Amino acid sequence: MNWTGLNLRITELVAWLQQRLEPADERGGGRNTDEGFHISGGAIVAGAIAAGVGAFVAKKLGALD
């Protein structure tokens, strides 16, 4: 898989997750529900960044050639 394919997969994953999490009902969850959404959103972003950095390092080391 090349860089374009990897970027496309990451973008598709983030878009899918946003679609799944966006229409949350804010009427009855309270503080804990809001915190859970923020924590999970941060974890998703961190995972995408880690995947990108890992792919970059692997490419530099020649593991993806």
Model description:
It is a single chain. By secondary structure, the protein is mainly alpha-helical. Helices cover 78% and strands 0% of the residues. The longest helix has 32 residues, at 30-61. It is elongated, with a radius of gyration of 16 Å. It starts with a helix and ends with a helix.
Total count of strands: 0
Integer average pLDDT: 77
Give the terminus-to-terminus CA distance: 9 Å
Helix content: over 70%
The radius of gyration is 16 Å
Low-confidence stretches are none
Q: Count the helices. How many? A: 2
- Largest sheet descriptor: none
- Please give the oligomerization state of what you see: single chain
Global shape: elongated
| Beta content | under 5%
Class based on secondary structure composition and strand pairing: mainly alpha
H and E order: HH
Characteristics of this structure?
mainly alpha, 2 helices, 65 residues
In short:
With 65 residues, the protein is mainly alpha-helical. The chain is 78% helix and 0% strand.
Topology record:
Blueprint: H1 3-21, H2 30-61
Helix pairs in contact: 1-2
